[in-house]
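Why do we bother with a discrete structure alphabet at all? Because it lets us treat a fold like text: something you can write down, compare, and reason about line by line. To make this less abstract, here is a complete entry for Adenylosuccinate lyase. Read it the way you would read a sentence in a foreign language you are learning: slowly, and without expecting to understand everything at once.
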Amino acid sequence: MTSLPPQPLSPLDGRYRAAVSGLSDYLSEAGLNRARVEVEVEWLITLTDRSLFGTSPLREDDKDALRALYRDFGADEIAWLGEKEAVTRHDVKAVEYLVRDRLSTLGLDAIAELTHFACTSEDINSTAYALTVKRAVESVWLPALREVIAKLKTLAAEHRDAAMLSRTHGQPATPSTMGKELAVFAWRLERVAAQIDAGEYLAKFSGATGTWSAHLAAEPDTDWVEVSRSFIEGLGLGFNVLTTQIESHDWQVELYDRARHVGGVLHNLATDVWTYISLGFFSQIPVAGATGSSTMPHKINPIRFENAEANLEISGGLFSTLASTLVTSRMQRDLTDSTTQRNIGVAFGHSLLALDNLRRGLGEISLAQPVLDADLDANWEVLAEAIQTVVRAEITAGRSEISDPYALLKDLTRGRRVGGPELAEFVRGLDIGDAAKERLLALTPAGYTGLASALVDTID
């Protein structure tokens, strides 16, 4: 058997590439290297702006030319770094050599020795990872999450009065509305999204073991902590002053735990909507030309929600592994984090793919109100809660002498289907006040939704 031409091993780079390609600008190897070049260049500019070691601030055109190294980073730089790393066997050293090479091209050899000055690789890496993850989350992943939340809010408002039979433990229970049930998911997702919005993206820039030792050896009269803090904060990141050789990754642990939490809520959404489809509460809108089954022409399978469910399980497992691995580093440094962090894009990729499917899936369903109405009309026994609660209130008010209203309703309804006429006859025979009796006689399963409709407004 002949070998295939080179193929992507991951479905994220093959079948699903179009859905997740926005992440590759940031969380691919090339995206990371571009950020590394950015950090190296901006550190050079910072050092010369402060006229350290007899340098002078660069002219603005020289700064622009330097910044073009990462702003115009592309195929040539990717290829150059690939060839250089094959020799150096060190990715950050290859980036340093790239910057030095371009400095020579630009006629800036005089400051070449300030490239990577007093830096350990993790100064560059922690800053580059913070930049790329921050940009990927804020520019790609969070907007996709907010699209799903917005769709849920729209559906919640649209179906706020759509009465439906609830099912607790899979059994008929106190009715709600479809709008309120979807609003629950929107509220849950908004809450965790707000936590992610408020999260930190931290970097360190303090040398080989976090002590600024080399910096002080070269220039003892400079406040290197202030220089480093100003540099990192100038990049839009938070500064971690107290570290080992690495930034301790706690901000990453927090982010990935929250991203996993989002995935858990989305997984719950996917399985619930799938179940509502199976119950007939939602019908699926046919997509022209699509095939549901290779042998059963009538089928429209809920594939969007099944795809989302599976990808959320994959991303959740990866986020959990990232969080549990990155929280630990042996003494001042080990390399377990290096290969682990290369899977950040994979975790967010599967999550983004799930978000894409959920957004599409929520736009391809239509509420089948007649099915909801029929389900409610077949389960009048759910009004037993209302009846026994009203009886309790009547007993407390001195308008009834019933001894055990819960047991009375349990005997009538538990494990039995009770129709409207039968329930009405039962109510008429109750020892309660006339006003309470009239309220109960007017009640129907479809009308027993409490504040469900009004609760939809909570999400705004």
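What the structure line is telling us, in plain words: The chain has 20 helices and six strands. The domain at 22-119 is CATH 1.10.275.10 (Fumarase C; Chain B, domain 1).
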